[in-house]
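Repro:
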Amino acid sequence: FFETGETLSLLHAIQADLLVMRNPQGMSFVELDESTSIQLHVASSKRREIQILYHNLWNLIEENPSLYPEEIIVMAPQINDYVPYMQSIF
């Protein structure tokens, strides 16, 4: 791990904290970029969760044409609960 002059994404900042076992509490402010490397969403139902996922994946693929759908993995503890919604939305 080494410092660079570049701003970090939230994901990279968390990964660096875990790598060097650093507790950022009480440390100086770290400037983060405007990326969406980590997102939190609140949804009222499983169907809405899948709709949000669909729109985020669609935007991600549009913004990055070199990204192929087979390179994306979506994981959930009980993925079978989402199957009917995935079939209707995707």
